[in-house]
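Data availability (excerpt). The following record was deposited with the supplementary files.
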Amino acid sequence: MDIYLKDPAGPELHIPVNPSEITARGAKKIETVNVINIGDIDFPTGDERSGISFSSFFSAEHDKSYCRTDDIPKPDDALNMLINWRIAGKPIMLLITETIINAPVLITELSYRYVGGEPGDTVMRRDANGRSQVAAPLG
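Predicted structure:
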């Protein structure tokens, strides 16, 4: 499995280390109507992808035992790319090979930390929101 984030205007980021899991959330849109003498009735109005999240890290050193590509970005460069995409608030493409996930998303949340004993590595968690940007249905 490989994870790619691509800005339609240019840069692409190949996440070098696969997460242990990827979580995709979806929901059914419902409109509730109150009918006199009957009560509330729910009407489905469509589907909504409410988010995709995963955690990974940007390794300062290439290690073929867990890096998916030989061309790993510098951790600070990769993190800055994600931060800039989040701040811009424009959709980027998320492709996760070997899954059905291939859709435009917004990076709505990005957290990161630096871990003692792992100099140069940056651990990150990213959440993407695919609402109204759905290009592929969730299984």
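Summary of structural features: The longest helix spans residues 75-88.
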